[in-house]
């Protein structure tokens, strides 16, 4: 696992990673990729400001390391990409804190903030579903890195936006045993409904982005198409679960 040092902006590789903050965001133009981060031209790319904002917030919170998907996964390596996709849920779950950066929301502290928050594109994307569910500690920030609120404080609003039950979002208040029971108490069909209507750039990612939510792993085969990817996902769910609601879905 590669982590970005929040002061030096250098990548370091770990087998047993230290405490780290993790970023959830929408990909935009000129994101700083794995191949760019150590190059001088990275500082001139549009996505670099987002990296700086994340690192600055992490330092304020006392973290030396951060994980950002754009620059911490070598997407030119099929092995690294497959590992990243299969490990993504766990990486978000194991992070000490998750920062959700909403570049299309400006928190002015007025009555327009909540509607703008609910309409953020972040809530329409496939990968951000697991990024919402997995972390225990999660905070939302607006386009200027001003804190909007936490997953706990906004649980009711988040549930109405995403259809994910508030108990799944506020599990930080439960013990570890209860945490697992709460998450697993929802049927396969219900979990599938949480993902309905969400979009991904690569069609196969509509299936791959759900692997962590269903606790399954499978090879990543870009080019197989959405139908084949979903078929393989369903086979893995059936293999590991006795939940018959998958057939109703």
Automatic annotation (TrEMBL):
Ranges of residues in domain Heterokaryon incompatibility: 20-109
Transmembrane domains' residue ranges: none
Pfam families found in the cross-reference section: HET
UniProt-listed PANTHER family: HET DOMAIN-CONTAINING PROTEIN
This protein's name: Heterokaryon incompatibility protein-domain-containing protein
Taxonomy of the source species: Eukaryota, Fungi, Dikarya, Basidiomycota, Agaricomycotina
């Amino acid at each position: 696992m590669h982590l970005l040092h929040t002061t030096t902006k250098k990548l370091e590789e770990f087998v047993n990673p230290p405490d780290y903050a993790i970023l959830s965001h929408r990909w935009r133009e000129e994101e700083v990729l794995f191949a760019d981060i150590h190059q001088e031209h990275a500082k001139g790319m549009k996505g670099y400001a987002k990296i700086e904002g994340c690192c600055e917030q992490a330092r304020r919170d006392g973290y030396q390391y951060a994980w950002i998907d754009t620059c911490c996964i070598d997407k030119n390596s099929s092995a690294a990409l497959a590992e990243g996709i299969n490990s993504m849920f766990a990486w978000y779950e194991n992070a000490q804190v998750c920062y959700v950066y909403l570049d299309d929301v400006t928190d002015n502290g007025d009555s327009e903030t909540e509607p703008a928050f609910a309409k953020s594109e972040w809530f329409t994307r496939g990968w951000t579903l697991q990024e919402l569910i997995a972390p225990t500690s999660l905070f939302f920030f607006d386009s200027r890195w001003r804190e909007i609120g936490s997953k706990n404080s906004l649980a009711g609003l988040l549930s109405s936006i995403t259809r994910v039950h508030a108990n799944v979002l506020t599990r930080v208040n439960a013990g570890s045993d209860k945490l697992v029971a709460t998450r697993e108490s929802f049927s396969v069909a219900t979990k599938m409904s949480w993902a309905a209507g969400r979009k991904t750039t690569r069609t196969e990612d509509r299936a791959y982005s759900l692997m962590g939510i269903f606790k399954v792993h499978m090879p990543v085969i870009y080019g197989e198409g959405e139908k084949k990817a979903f078929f393989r996902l369903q086979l893995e769910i059936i293999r590991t679960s006795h939940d018959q609601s998958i057939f109703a879905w």
